[in-house]
Prior knowledge:
- The complex is a heterodimer of chains A (282) and B (351).
- With 282 residues, chain A is an alpha/beta fold.
- Helices cover 17% and strands 30% of the residues of chain A.
- Chain A has two domains: 8-99, Translation factors (Elongation Factor Tu (Ef-tu), domain 3); 105-279, Rossmann fold, CATH 3.40.50.80.
- Chain A has seven helices and 15 strands.
- At the A-B interface, strand 4 of A face strand 4, helix 5, strand 11, strand 12 and helix 12 of B.
Amino acid sequence: MHNPFKPQQAKIVDMKRETADTTTYTFEFLDEEVKENFCFTPGQFNMLTIFGIGEAPISISSDPAKSKYFQHTIRHVGNVTNAMVKLKVGDKLGIRGAYGTGWNINLLKNKNVLIVAGGIGLAPLRPVILQLAGQRGEFDRVEILYGARTPGEMLFTDEYQTWRSKGLDVLPTVDNVPDTEEWKHSVGVVTGLFDEMQSMPENTVVLTCGPEVMMQFVVKDLLERHFQPHQIYVSLERRMNCGVKKCGKCQIGPKFVCKDGPVFAYAELLTLPESVLGGVGK
Amino acid sequence: MVIARNLEAMLQASSIAFLPKEKLNDFVGLLTEEFLLYGPVQKKTEFVFEKIENAAQLALDYHTTLLPPKKVLHQPFETLFSFSEGEGAVDDVSHVEEKQLLFGVHPCDVHAISILDEVYSHEYEDPYYMAKRRGTLVVALNCSTPGDDCFCSSLGTGPDLKDGYDLLLTDLGDNYLVETGSKAGQELVEMARLYSAPRVTLVEKEKRLSDARKKFKKRMITDGLHDLLEENFRHPVWEELMKKCLACGSCTMVCPTCFCYNVVDKIDLGLRSGKRQREWDSCMLLEYAQVAMGHNFRKDRDARIKQRLYHKLAYYEPQFGTLGCVGCGRCIHTCVKKIDITEIIGRIRGE
């Protein structure tokens, strides 16, 4: 019988320090068959194991077209992710996946796309951004609003130029600028960029990921700007110990975030008795 | 008319047999030769499911056990695999099909096992549970004396049983009536050379069960329960419960349908190998919904109380096509603050 709980061995083939506490790792599975068969859709996650420490759900941050070498962008803030700080290129760890729903690219075709990300929340959105850039002609206006605490904490900064050259608008903002850093763009929370953006509710789909409180304000402000709950897709974070609807931890109402999510249309979340994202618009 | 139809259905049921009580010892002896046997055993004033070697250990007139027989199939602590430096996950321990038999399981607990079967096979099969389940026979026992906290009759999960068993026993005084529910059950009857019972015995069985139905002290009306709960998410009862409940998690630990677990890695002393283990967890505990950096999605106690109640009575159905409560009453019996699921629903209904 197939064992969905048993991680496969994967090797780190490349590492890139993104910020003081965040690293992007490139992995490949050791087993040729596993490596060949592995595929994912943007927005899906893997369960990453450091044997002896534990397992954590982490979104995949790379281009789905290149699934043999996939990336995770990891902020070192939990047990497993802190243990990953010590890893080097060539080190092995356990990975199983990919799990969950993703951002559905088919829903975005011939639509305007508004992406709103905060902090590490840009990582789960990067696969869909790379897809949008790769198939640019199939979508109308694409705007990316990205907020971080400081300029030094922004992710993938060396890629914005490429994204822009492919016709995606990137509007960055930071909460504050330390004296030692330089910044020529907006200062303030990411929802402050709503006054600057081109996106209007008409024919637009919103994808958002970031800290719980940020998404709460993103949804609230967008609803006030007459975006509808069915137009807004959010990626939720929940505790997960299995990824396959067994451990029960990620449940919200009858939904299992690991399988029915992590990406949900906000309209779907409004049908649940328990409030999600503060229950804005309920 | 309904009674007549039921009787007709009963009379067409598969073969029935007698197990005289004086032969129980021989029967159990036969079973222990083939199976690892678990049955109800008395411990002071309580009962538990334990490994059985002979019939003398059994307490078949038991009221509900402390823990449900779930513990044999979804163990409180279970090793998923071991791991070692360099090799990753090794030594897959999941695929051993143990030949075991649960003896004297009450209808509520049989229903709970059927529910767990669905949980553990739904979309992704859980190889650990399923391997154990496939090697497990269930000899059920209809309830003649419901306990003080039982309310299975409200949920259609007792005191009698329609399916989910290999054999079904009903206490008729000097004999157990034995009904077969599967081919494996039929083989047990043949192996033990039990005498077939006349069909009219089913009338005696029905009489005893209808006597049992009159003895329930608790009830829960399930009509429109889903909508009732959805409409009463902000009912004052939740705040009252928040002040009363200790959030100790006992109710979930004794529940026959709770399936949540946590996963931990246990490292050997040499620090080069270890094992990954899962342990029962509880949505009533503070850490249950906490994520990295300390954010907790159900920090408030009322949110956790509601998660337990709503999961059992409102969310289980869209997830697995059944209510998540079988009316065994364990959560009521075990609660030090005497929180009673039937009273909560009654209160919301304005009873």
